Amino acid sequence: MRILGVDCATKPKNTGLCCVLDHRIEHAETGDGSVAERLAAWIEPGTPTLLAFDAPLGWPSALAPALVDHRAGDPLRPEANELFHRLTDDEIQERLGKRPLEVGADLIARTAREALSVLQELRDRTGLSIPLGWEGAPADVAVIEVYPAATLQAHGFRSSGYKGGRGRPVRESILDDFDVGPHREALAANADVFDAWLCTLAGRDFLEGRCVPPNDAQRERALIEGWIWVRSTD
């Protein structure tokens, strides 16, 4: 089973990429040129592959209908939380006390759009449908949305202060608990690559059935808005 972690960004040079095959890291790097081209090179026929994207893959279900007939100067309904929060954002905050960036309101919207563009380019390059994953290992290739900081917290680690150059000591301390082989320096030196590796941890949690799925009442909305897969802390 191969897991491809992608710490999404608007530019390839800021996009972290990590490729793991059966718990062993094969690649850990930042993007260069086409991110989709690089990912396509890591997808092999006959090897089931899970893509784990650190970016929203959907928008709040109330946002699009509210904007269809809106005109400048008119009030925008419904309430702000319903317009800009996804169901999965609220679930993560309630469960872990962390609020994901609001794709309907924050700068993350540009990253989300780029992530969806990369995903479509990857479909075009491979000829694969690459659907969203909802349970278990994919038969071919599937994609899920993950949230590295929440994954860290769910695994019992510090989930703040690990970004940027000053965050290297925190990244180093986390890596002390894992066998990452010769890729340790790449993960410690670059927070984007480190986040991509965390994406693969979240992917492993998903494959092992450790993540919290949407319940029956949440599933229809999750199919529209997307779902962040983070392991249970129970």
Strands, helices and their partners?
Elements: E1 2-7, E2 16-21, E3 24-30, H1 35-42, E4 49-53, H2 63-68, H3 80-84, H4 87-96, H5 108-126, E5 141-145, H6 148-154, H7 168-175, H8 184-189, H9 191-207, H10 216-225
Parallel strand pairs: 1-4, 4-5
Antiparallel strand pairs: 1-2, 2-3
Helix pairs in contact: 1-5, 6-9
- The neighbouring-strand order within the major sheet is 3-2-1-4-5
**Helix percentage range:** 40-55%
Q: What is the structural class? A: alpha/beta
Residue windows where pLDDT falls under 50 for at least 5 positions: none
Beta content comes to 5-15%
Radius of gyration: 18 Å
Distance between the termini: 26 Å
The average pLDDT value, as a whole number, equals 95
Outline type: globular
Number of strands: 5
Separate helix tally: 10
Listing every helix as H and every strand as E from the N terminus to the C terminus, the arrangement reads EEEHEHHHHEHHHHH
Main β-sheet: number of strands, strand sense, barrel status? 5 strands, mixed
List the defining traits of the structure above.
single chain, five-stranded mixed beta sheet, alpha/beta
Can you characterise this structure?
- The protein has helices spanning 35-42, 63-68, 80-84, 87-96, 108-126, 148-154, 168-175, 184-189, 191-207, 216-225; strands at residues 2-7, 16-21, 24-30, 49-53, 141-145.
- With 234 residues, it is an alpha/beta fold.
- The protein has a five-stranded mixed sheet.
- Strand 2 and strand 3 form a beta hairpin.
